[in-house]
Amino acid sequence: LAAVMNAADGVAVAGAHGKTTTSAMISCIAAESGIDPTVIIGGEVSSLGGNARNGAGRFVVAEADESDGSFLKLYPYLAVVTNIEDDHLDHYGTEENIYQAFKQFVGNIKEGGKAVLCFDNAKVRRLAAETDKEVITYGVEGEGADYIARDISYGVDGTSYKLYYKGEFVTEVHLIVPGRHNVLNSMGAFAAAHEMGIATDKILASLKKFGGAKRRFETKGKVNGVWVVDDYAHHPTEIGVTLKAARQTKPERLLCVFQPHRYTRTKLLFSEFCECFKDCDELILTDIYAASEEAIPGVSSMHLAEGIKAATGQEVLYIGKLTKAEEYLERVVRPGDLVMTIGAGDVFKIGEELVRELERNAD
Q1: Which of 191, 189, 179, 183 is nearest to 147 (CA)?
Q2: Domain 218-362 listed as CATH 3.90.190.20
Q3: pLDDT at 65
Q4: If you classify domain 2-209 with CATH, what class do you get?
Q5: Contact 174, 192 (CB under 8 A)
Q6: What are 3-27's pLDDT values in tens digits?
Q7: DSSP state of 72
């Protein structure tokens, strides 16, 4: 990736959450605008025909993965940072080390390039103040950002908002993907695409039809009034944001199946996991997806279920095996339900099998 990006004008998107969707949005905008970018991202996008694209233009758009520090090998023309969070502590050790890695990543920007930074995140605001690179900022909450979204409207058909740049109205943006987090993702994509020289009307047209990346609020099916969605969220902040977006679609009930990812993450962020499922009407936990890790004594989904009950008073159902969780859902779902499978492992299989069973029963 570094060899490909560093030989071109790279657009690298980094952050604990949102980097796949933001890089996918930028990639779709660029590809549909005719500038023929090369694309390398971590999720499949139907309009791109996969997760990579070999272009002949000057730009290479890529997702920059901070998990093992390898994103520091990139020297982009544009660096987009969606947020900085306390993930991957098994690699970095401390939150300050994570921050310093992102600071170095932005410091790698080529001469004449810029950083596109989300002002809603406190650590990214600190980064904007401390870097000597030229900065473009965007946000929903904080005044002081260059790009600001106002008059946000959420509904079952998507999201819309008015975009301002340095206090001046620019345009109205319409999205079919739900949630406040996708407002931010689209703002980062808009700002980056504008710096790539892409016209506003082409940016808006691409954003309006962007249906999301695979495993990012991905609809698995809608059968007899039951909507089944899968999402890759595996960090507590990410989960909370995803469930809030799900709640904004106004389901009668929101049923969530969560498969924790890695014993180390479950242990290190246990307290945060206990607080992030409050938007669920019903929560089911399956066994931890080890991702090649050895089990840690005392760290389990059953222990996490007890922690969530103690912290929030929520009723949490522990069903270890995926097949058993699917069988339970098949018995209890009813029209108006939104069923979400959440996690970075193979929990998506539950939703796929549930859709198949619902379709068979509907015949």
Answers
A1: 191
A2: yes
A3: 85
A4: alpha beta
A5: no
A6: 998 889 999 999 988 888 999 999 9
A7: G
Helix (H) or strand (E) holding 11: strand 9-14
Q: In the 8-state DSSP scheme, what is residue 294?
A: P
Active site residues: 19-20, 63
Domain residue extents for the chain: 2-209, 218-362
Q: Which two tokens stand for residue 207?
A: 């954003």
Please report which confidence band the pLDDT of residue 321 belongs to, taking 50, 70 and 90 as the band edges: very high
The predicted-structure confidence for 101-156, as pLDDT tens digits, reads as follows 999 999 999 999 999 999 999 999 999 999 999 999 999 976 789 999 999 998 77
| DSSP assignment of 225-243 | TEEEEEE---SHHHHHHHH
Q: What are phi and psi of 282, to 5 degrees?
A: -145, 135
**CA torsion through residues 334, 338, 344, 349, sign:** positive
Contact call for residues 261 and 343 (beta carbons, < 8 A): yes
Q: Do domains 2-209 and 218-362 have the same CATH topology?
A: no
Q: What is the mean pLDDT of residues 62-91?
A: 86
Quick one: pLDDT at residue 87? Answer: 67
Which helix H or strand E contains 153, and what residues bound it? strand 147-155
